[in-house]
Design a protein that fits this description.
Layout (H helix, E strand, L loop, with lengths): L2 E10 L7 H18 L7 E6 L2 E10 L5 E9 H4 L8 H9 L8 E5 L2 E10 L4 H14 L20 E8 L2 E2 L3 E2 L2 E2 L3 E3 L8 E3 L8 H7 L5 H18 L3 E2 L3 H8 L6 E6 L9 H11 L3 E4 L5 E9 L6 H26 L15 E3 L3 E2 H19 L3 H10 L7 H5 L6 H9 L4 H9 L14 H20 L12 H15 L5 H10 L10 H19 L4 H8 L6 H15 L4 H17 L16 H22 L3 H8 L3 H10 L7 H19 L10
Antiparallel strand pairs: 1-3, 1-7, 2-3, 4-6, 5-6, 7-8, 9-10, 11-12, 13-15, 14-16, 15-16, 17-18
Helix pairs in contact: 1-4, 6-7, 8-9, 10-11, 10-15, 11-14, 11-15, 13-14, 14-15, 15-16, 15-17, 15-18, 16-18, 16-20, 17-18, 18-19, 19-20, 20-23, 21-25, 22-23, 22-24, 22-25
């Protein structure tokens, strides 16, 4: 079999920029799966993507499938022939289905008997007929939520398809995909270079497209060039460009020939909080803001053009004209909003609905204020500042700035509160109430901020659960993120808060609005369930988390201490044996009927092994009891691990289920006492080897 490089390029109208990488990677993965299923070997697949194309190059693809022999087993010989040795209907039907006579069948002998067998030689197909089908199947499996039709065609894809190229070496693979016949023609840049090129060989891609068509089809190459040139541009103006990966990805997906340029705006706009300016630059215009070495915004921005202009100053001027009205709007909103203090907007929150059954945002504000005040008492936050922050928490939603630039909520509240002369802790809390916004995000920096942030999140969780809209598949109110945020704030700040208390207090703010009877229990289960995903993401194994969850500790900081203690215990040499012993004890105790003695009766100890274990247990209980009182679980488990030797000796030499009921109960009481010591931390019997 011969091998050649294979190219497939699908030319389209502009593809959605936020989905371009996903589509390209999925195309490569799906096509590779199709090749594997078709038994076509190759040495790798490289994907390419630009706004108007998806392409794959398969290196050293075989030109045909290998020949293979397919074994088709027939009926057992005992059922294939009658007593006279003539073929039965079953045998003849099987043979006819394979296009042979029964006499042509082979015999397959196995341990379970003898069977008729037909070995069919299946020649491998050439790729000419296979590749269009495989590519079509791969494209049909792309993650496209809303496919579209175009013209008078019945075919559907994410965008209209204009061209199709399929080349195996220098040979055109003929076929039709998504209503377009394969050709050698690819399209160049809309405004530069050759508008179209005819490829002689798959190996000419993507170099000729870049050289003659002014299209850089290599996505990663475009992205790296944008980053390199943007850093060079920011260095040239003595600043640092903010190159968020999500925005860099989007910009990479918007251009075919990236040209990085630097533009400016008037210094006067720097009087507006930088967050509002950055929001419009990044969100609306896809520009990269530039900061000085102290983190202050400079009156510069970097943008990526899709053309190499003979007069770049015209392109720069055009972009400056585009962004100026947006910055002017931000300046106007900022100056207008500051004419009224935030607190004056509090009554206006009654006109905005939080959730139909849960009331207005003003209702939510009142609940947050009351709940945050209770939390403040428990974590040592300034109560007056916390209540003030609760009252102001949502007031910036009524400002012109936040109405126009929604992502500035919170941060604008902070700026307006500072302008109004509110205490700094109050101003910070207005911004930090939304933290953490996503996994790994920063946490509130003060107790006041933490109290308001937890109150806001707990109010949403309990309220939505309370009206029967707990998240199942989708999570429109982002309750999973809110629950994880509460847990992180408590654990990472070391707050000694109990989820039971938080949930109860949050529910109490709702009076009779909630319709679900078991809301407190359901919310507790939901929040404990967040521990599993969180600690798995941190690298803890599922069985460690399950061991702690089995005890249902409702204080997040306490939960964290237990997980770390069990993780350390599992690393000890004695852990596996003691986990097995705990499982054995649990099984024995589960079968026992009756009431166990509360203490060990030393007069009933007969065997040396049980006397030794009783003495060891008594000594360890004395040592670990104060450790449990101090929540020093790691030290306690380390001490309990030393019981391995006497426990092993006990099980090797003592009959637990003795005939004498008193003797049996005493031995079970001792085992129960041992298990209870471990259960003070976790159920280690669920630990896996």
């Amino acid at each position: 079999m011969a091998t050649q490089n294979f190219l497939i390029e699908l030319g389209t109208e502009e593809l959605p920029p936020t989905a371009l990488r996903t589509l390209a990677e999925a195309f490569a993965n799906q096509f590779e799966a199709q090749l594997k299923e078709a038994d076509l070997s190759h040495q790798g697949i490289t994907w390419y993507a630009s706004p108007r194309r998806l392409a794959l190059k398969v290196t050293a693809l075989n030109d045909r499938q290998p020949d293979k022999v397919v074994e088709k087993r027939g009926p057992a010989v005992s059922a294939a022939f009658d007593t006279d040795g003539n073929p039965t209907k079953a045998a003849m039907g099987w043979a006819r289905g394979n296009g042979i006579d029964v006499s042509e069948a082979e015999r397959l002998k196995t341990d379970k008997g003898e069977w008729l067998l037909y070995r069919q030689h299946v020649p491998g197909q050439a790729i000419d007929t296979l590749l269009p089908v495989l590519a079509d199947h791969a494209l049909s499996k792309l993650p496209i939520p809303k496919p579209m039709r175009w013209g008078d065609k019945d075919t559907q894809f994410i965008r209209p398809v204009k061209t199709l190229v399929m080349l195996f070496g220098d040979r055109l693979i003929e076929g039709t995909i998504l209503g377009v016949a394969s050709d050698r023609v690819i399209r160049g840049h809309r405004f530069m270079g050759e508008p179209s090129l005819t490829l002689d060989n798959a190996d000419q891609y993507p170099e000729r497209l870049e050289r003659e068509g002014k299209v850089m089809a290599d996505y990663e190459k475009r992205k790296a060039l944008i980053i390199k040139d943007a850093k060079a541009a920011s260095d040239a103006v003595g600043g640092v460009a903010e190159l968020d990966d999500d925005l860099v990805e989007e910009v990479t997906s918007l251009v075919e020939w990236p040209v990085v340029l630097t533009a400016s705006f008037e210094n006067k706009y720097l009087n507006v909080p930088s967050e509002a300016l950055v929001y419009t630059m990044k969100g609306d215009q896809k520009y990269f803001p530039v900061y000085d070495t102290n983190g202050e915004l400079l009156p510069k921005f970097i943008f990526v053009s899709n053309i190499e202009s003979k007069d770049p100053t015209q392109v720069i001027s055009g972009n400056e004209k585009v962004v100026r009205p947006r910055l002017a709007d931000a300046e106007f909103f900022f100056n207008t909003d500051r004419k009224r203090p935030l607190i004056d907007r509090l009554p206006e929150l009654d006109s905005a609905v939080f959730q139909k059954q849960l009331g207005t945002i003003k209702d939510k504000t009142d609940r947050i204020t009351a709940l945050a005040s209770q939390i403040a008492d428990r974590i040592g936050a300034d109560k007056a500042h916390t209540e003030r922050a609760g009252q102001l928490a949502k007031c910036d939603l009524m400002t012109s700035m936040v109405f126009e630039f929604t992502e500035t909520q919170g941060v604008m509240g902070m700026h307006y509160a500072r302008h109004d002369g509110e205490p700094e802790a109050v101003a910070l809390a207005l911004n930090e109430q939304y933290w953490p916004r996503f996994a790994g995000d920063k946490l509130p920096t003060t107790p006041v901020s933490s109290a308001v942030a937890m109150a806001d999140k707990m109010d949403s969780i309990v309220g939505i659960f309370g009206i029967g809209q707990a998240p199942k598949g989708s999570d429109p109110f982002a309750l999973r993120r809110a629950a994880l945020g509460v847990l992180r704030i408590i654990v990472e700040n070391g707050y000694q808060l109990d989820l039971v208390d938080l949930i109860h207090d949050a529910k109490a703010q709702y009076d009779d609005r909630l319709t679900q009877k078991d809301v407190e229990a359901n919310v507790l289960d939901f929040m404990l369930g967040r521990f599993r995903s969180w600690y798995q993401d941190m690298g803890y194994s599922v069985d460690i988390i399950q061991a702690v969850l089995a005890r249902r500790p409702t204080k997040p900081a306490d939960f964290d201490s237990r997980v770390k203690a069990v993780s350390h215990f599992r690393s000890l040499e004695e852990a596996e044996a003691l986990a097995a012993a705990n499982k054995r004890v649990g099984n024995i105790l589960a079968k026992f009927e009756g009431e166990l003695p509360g203490t060990i009766d030393s007069s009933l100890l007969q065997e040396d092994a049980e006397k030794a274990l009783a003495a060891a247990v008594e000594a360890k209980v004395a040592v670990v009891t104060p450790m449990f009182a101090d929540s020093d679980y790691q030290s306690a488990l380390t001490e309990l691990a030393k019981l391995r030797a006497p426990v092993d000796t006990f099980f090797d030499n003592v009959m637990v289920m003795a005939d004498d009921p008193a003797l049996k109960a005493n031995r079970l009481a001792m085992l129960h006492l041992i298990r209870e010591q471990f259960l003070n931390v976790a159920d280690i019997s669920v630990l896996q080897k």
